[in-house]
Specification:
The protein has 3 domains: about 80 residues, Rossmann fold (3-Layer(aba) Sandwich), CATH 3.40.50.20; about 130 residues, ATP-grasp fold, B domain (D-amino Acid Aminotransferase, Chain A, domain 1, 2-Layer Sandwich), CATH 3.30.470; about 60 residues, Dna Ligase, domain 1 (2-Layer Sandwich). About 35% of the residues lie in helices and about 25% in strands. The protein is built from 10 helices and 12 strands. Strand 8 and strand 9 form a beta hairpin. Helix 1 packs across helix 10.
Length: about 300
């Protein structure tokens, strides 16, 4: 029987979400017939994996170190097949500025913006509001600030001592409209989901709290926009060099007819409120079957 290590937890800001994803992955892996061991990843992860004597790694980590190429590089050195994207694709997708450049290169629409020093962002409006301030390499909406039209001043919180997201910060023009997301499974775009929430935006609580958001699947969109979103997600997945499962997020401006890609997540959440398992089920792939596919797709591929 194949012995699978589900690595989860870690030490990033997304640790709580990762623990939930990991437990769900482990449960589904056992249901799919694998010998599963759960590992709360520490900085001694190599020793943890050696002690567990596993055949393959099901990566349930989220955030820095777990999905930015670091753990992937370790697994490459150890010669352990692992799920999701390889070293380079993981690093590129995690760095929003680098992934923006790749999106633009292959013809995907991105929001106007760029990198700024956080001291500059706190001192003045670096672009006309409304705009969005976001860390270059974080997930789960950590550190995201929306500066609304008519704001009295710039977001000074980025200069506060508690800011933990780096000295260079991404600023993008706020794109009005609808929040869409598309999961990709190998060479197949799954579905388009529209996300609605009563919160200011699709933040951490909206993503993971029960009832924090509503998922409309399939999204009620013109056929050409559905097709464009599916095509764009697959194009982003391929342009970044991803494998396994990814999820790309978009904004669709109804009035302008503009579909803007925001980011690609190489290790999307696998919690009970997560989007990719829901999309997979929508196209006839239940959660244990999805996890089985991910495990069978695992490899050492930089």
């Amino acid at each position: 029987m194949t012995r699978v290590a589900v690595i989860m937890g870690g030490w990033s800001s997304e640790r709580p979400v990762s623990l939930v994803s990991g437990r769900e992955l482990a449960r589904a892996g056992r249901e799919a017939g694998y010998d599963v061991v759960e590992i709360d990843a520490g900085r001694d992860l190599a020793d943890q994996l050696k002690a567990a004597a596993v055949d393959v790694v099901l990566n349930g980590l989220h955030g820095p170190f777990g999905e930015d190429g670091c753990v992937q590089g370790l697994l490459e050195v150890m010669g352990l097949p692992y799920t999701h994207s390889g070293v380079l694709a993981s690093a590129l997708a995690m760095d929003k500025q680098k992934s923006r450049a790749i999106y633009a290169q292959v013809g995907l629409d991105i929001a106007e913006g760029g990198l700024f020093a956080r001291s500059e962002i706190a001192a003045r409006h670096v672009m006309e509001p409304p705009y969005v301030v976001k860390p270059v390499a974080e997930g789960s909406s950590f550190g995201v600030i929306i500066v609304r039209e008519g704001a009295n001043g710039p977001p000074r919180e980025v200069a506060e001592a508690g800011w933990a997201f780096g000295e260079r910060v991404l600023v993008e023009k706020f794109i009005p409209g609808r929040e869409l997301t598309v999961g990709v499974m190998g060479d197949r775009a799954l579905a388009v989901t529209e996300i609605t929430t009563l919160r200011e935006y699709y933040d951490y609580a909206a993503k993971y709290d029960h009832g924090g958001s509503r998922h409309i699947i399939p999204a009620d969109l013109p056929d050409e926009i559905t097709t464009a979103a599916l095509d764009a997600a697959l194009k982003a997945h391929q342009a970044l060099g991803c494998r396994g499962v990814t999820r790309s997020d978009f904004r669709f401006d109804d009035e302008a007819g503009r579909l803007v890609i925001l980011e690609t997540n190489t290790q999307p959440g696998m919690t009970p409120t997560s989007l990719v398992p829901e999309q997979a089920a929508h196209v006839g792939v239940d959660f244990p079957a999805l996890v089985r596919w991910m495990i069978e797709d695992a490899s050492c591929q930089r």
